[in-house]
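Dissemination and training. As part of the outreach component of the grant, students in the summer workshop were shown how a complex can be specified as a set of sequence lines and then modelled as a single object. The example used during the hands-on session is reproduced here so that future cohorts can follow it. Participants entered these lines:
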Amino acid sequence: MLDFLGYGFIQQAFLIGIALGLAAALLSPFIVLNHQAMIGDGLAHISFTGIVLGILLQGEPLLIALPLVIGASLLIKYLANRKNINGDAAIGIVSATAFAIGLILVKKGAGFNISIESMLVGNIFTATTTELILSLIALAVSAVFVIWNYRSLLLVTYDQDYARFSKIKVAWLNYALAALTAFFIVTGVRTIGVLMISALTIFPSIFASQWSVSFKGTLLIGLVSSLTVVIIGIFIAHPLGLPVGATIVVLYAVAVLGGALIKLIMRR
Amino acid sequence: MIEFKNVSVNFGDFQALRNVSFHIKEGDFMHIVGPNGSGKTTLIRLLVGLLKPSEGTIVRSDATMGYLPQKANINQKLPITVSEVIYSGFARPKLKPSKQDVALIKAWLDKMEIGHLYDKSMSYLSGGQQQRVYIVRALISEPRVIVLDEPTSALDPSFREKFYLLLKEIHAKRGATIVNVTHDLTDAVSVGDCTMYVDQEVRFCGSYRDFQTFEHEGHHHA
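and obtained this result:
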């Protein structure tokens, strides 16, 4: 029954899934609990266009998509910092425009022969070595960034005024977090899917904050839950022929709902 | 130590502070009073470096500073414990607080009569208990300058008195410079303290004794 684990592409899928799951869980509390949950969704839409453009222009779409999406994430942050635009609107403006351009390119671009559905849903079993390497880099950079800036990130998330008073470079940190989120999203968008990848950054801290009263606990429970859900997700998705990204998201949703239910019962 | 020279602050058409000049010397205990909307918090935000003046200059020594904001502009939904909030105020915190750090935090929480709340979630605390946590965060690293924006607004009267006794002790023993914005001078003030009355501009700056005369002449501070 476990024979499929012997295949190289399955092992690679596990490695990519675990790396992306852990990277997402590391970034999750600083994005979600800082009212930035939708930035991942917006960046995923922009990644779609970046990858379409990359396929049309050359063989390795990530080389085009990466700088484009990181640039877009910085633009979103810049717009959100303007007094007359709020964060949600900034994400909406940039991502909808980019996605619209992507759809036009798919329709009119000569030689584009990949189905939109396969891009929206993603496929972790057809991932390239480049995607494996980028996933591992995303995990390594996220880990170093969060450990190095833990206290600054915590203060910026909890109390921006006190963070500024403590001479923390709040704007720089927010831009760096946005760029890192963009890097993670582009790396994961083809394997987990345009519509699913942002959920990986949202669920860990939502699930973890059901069970933890501390920030560190939220981060750790997020990491463990992500690891568990990704492994179970790939494990059941392959034999049943389900899309991996969607399976992971449904499992996480079940875990959050189950958690809420258990809490409700415990309170009675 | 801290000097304001002809400082003005404009928010669009509204002038929050006009041509403010004063000097705080090392070891001063200064109380700032004034009516609501008189620019006290703006003045404090200038003092701690959160705001830049529209005109004028502020000279500040590089002494260590502790700060208690008026209403902590915080993310209430964040799961965070009392000890995590306080440890985030340390000058050079590590990923995990050392045994000495834990003991220090516990000693301060005991002083504030909330020792039992060390690992409780902040969302579990009342407004007054949260205020005590922020007070600990401001004071724990023994800063040379302590800036407090209405520290006792959420505290009950009996604890308010204890808090000011503690502050006076810190001032007397360590010679810390203290700037305290308040609506109620009753428990706060000692005879030797400086008092400043602000209403868009500095209307009075001098000893508490002289301030009482200033008040008797028909000026009211709250």
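The first strand of chain B starts at residue 2 and ends at 11. Students were then asked to discuss how this feature might be tested experimentally.
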